Amino acid sequence: MQSPELESSAQSSNHRFRRITGEFLRFLIMGGINTLVAYLVYLILLIWMRYEVAYAIGYAVGICFAYALSATFVFRKPMNRRSAIQFPLVYLAQFLLSLGLLKVAVDWLDIPEWLAFILVVALTVPVTFTLTRRVLHAG
């Protein structure tokens, strides 16, 4: 028989694991929805403007949409000025990390470009999740 302290600690660890797993699954769902929204904005804007401008606007809309969904749906935290200011920095970090990993994969490891993209996404999703979680839980 375990001591009450050890049993309580195990229950606490199990609860934390389930909470983080739920957040990660919601994060994946949110990412899919966010990608679709940003892509639809991009496609609609292509009717009136060049693709570069449409992409930039779609990307910015995606960041705003991701912030709202991350706060309310994924992590269930209130939105506030501090986290709203820090949140785009997560996307900047993710972009720079992805670009660096993509360069290493394609130029140094000779991984085909189409496959390198998939590998980079797989590697950066957990990093983006962790950074987003820290920003929203600290806010």
Structure description:
The chain is mainly α and 139 residues long. The protein folds into two domains: 1-76, no CATH class; 77-139. The chain has four helices and no strands. The protein has helices at 4-45, 51-74, 81-108, 113-138. The longest helix is centred in the first third of the chain and has 42 residues, at 4-45. The chain is globular and about 65 Å long.
Any chance you could write out the topology, listing elements then pairs?
Blueprint: H1 4-45, H2 51-74, H3 81-108, H4 113-138
What features would you highlight for this structure?
86% helix; 139 residues; mainly alpha; 2 domains; 4 helices
Number of strands: 0
The main sheet comes to: none
User: Strand share of the residues?
Assistant: under 5%
Question: Kindly, what is the distance between the CA atoms of the first and last residues, rounded to a whole number of angstroms?
Answer: 40 Å
Order of helices and strands: HHHH
- Can you give the helix content as a percent range? over 70%
Write down the domain tally. Answer: 2
Let me know the average pLDDT: 91
Task: Give unreliable regions as ranges.
Answer: none
Radius of gyration: 18 Å
Summing up helix and strand content along with how strands pair, one would put the structural category as mainly alpha
What's the total helix number?
4
Shape: globular
